[in-house]
Amino acid sequence: MAGEFELIANYFNWPAEDKSVDTSVGDDGAVLNISPDHQLIISVDTLVAGVHYPLDTSPSDIGYKSLIVNLSDIAAMGAEPRWFTLALTLPNYHSNWLNGFSAGLKQAANEYGVSLIGGDTTRGAQTISIQMMGEAVIGKALKRSAALAGDGLYITNTLGDAAAGLQIHQINQSSSPRKILSDSEAYCVARLNRPTARVNESKIIRQYANACMDISDGLLQDLSHILQASQLGAVIDTSAIKLSSQLESLYNHEEGLKFALSGGDDYELLFSVAKDKQESFENEMQNEGLAFQLIGKLVDDTNDIFDQEGNVLNASGFQHF
Ligand code: ADP
Ligand code: MG
């Protein structure tokens, strides 16, 4: 791509402040010093314009969100996010877009203290691929396969806001003239465009949880991955699931619950904690002011998800194909 080196120099060559970064953008490969007694945790996520975010999403929101979705994966592993690479494919060199995108990306990188250490730049349909690397103490990474029957099933914060935000955005996009969003509507759209990676929560969760993952494709669908990996079933008390006050104010509870169970893009953590650790876990989260909900428990002998009345809940979330 013409101007590729100028593009990298202008927008993506940030001085690495982290001392673990020996060599960063500008060489054929990055050189990193990994902490002793730690394992490297690696994850990659690709965002395609119009598929993973609406085409009219602001460039800075795209930059911000593309880092968050990757930070969320590292948090879900119970690891500390440290470094990332960026593979950027763009149809053209558009400095307004690049300014916004790199500002949003940099903001997220600063907020979460992670370093951009390299990447690749190519011409084509707008696609952002970020590889995030983190560290976990040897043997301590949280895996989907380690849940146990009897574990309490928890989520961080609340679910459903981002999926509602997408619907609100889509309805507003097709209305002419576009209306001004109410505070609650704007909150949901902001949860879609600027999600939170639960990195702080992960620091506590990793001390107590058996299994953990992040919810990107909807609670029921993502839970089914833990169930398959751990060969367990689950009972969810849907009547106990709390929604955000914003979601409650916009939809009736049934509709809100549908977003929470099957909507995607929340990036909350879903994890299981053994009964004898639940009290200490809950106390520590409360002391730190971190929000969570106990939504059910894991059970033996089935891969199904039941509600409190014994009805099977269907796991239909976002399907990529
Ligand atoms: P090479 O030809 O060796 O693959 P490139 O020309 O692709 O090198 O990249 C030059 C340098 O710039 C490398 O250090 C690479 O990691 C970095 N880089 C390329 N694209 C990006 C990007 N979008 N963001 C950050 N660093 C990038
Ligand atoms: Mg290259």
Task: Describe what is shown at a glance.
The protein is 36% helix and 25% strand. With 321 residues, the protein is α+β, with helices and mostly antiparallel strands.
Structure description:
By secondary structure, the protein is α+β, with helices and mostly antiparallel strands. It folds into two domains: 134 residues, PurM-like, N-terminal domain (60s Ribosomal Protein L30, Chain: A, 2-Layer Sandwich); 164 residues, Phosphoribosyl-aminoimidazole Synthetase, Chain A, domain 2, CATH 3.90.650.10. The chain has ten helices and twelve strands. The strands form three sheets. A six-stranded mixed β-sheet has the order 8-10-7-11-9-12, with helices on both faces. Helix 3 links the parallel strand 4 and strand 5. Helix 2 runs parallel beside helix 6 and helix 4 packs across helix 5. It is globular. The structure holds adenosine-5'-diphosphate and magnesium ion (MG). Adenosine-5'-diphosphate (ADP) binds next to strand 4 and strand 5. Adenosine-5'-diphosphate binds next to strand 4 and strand 5.
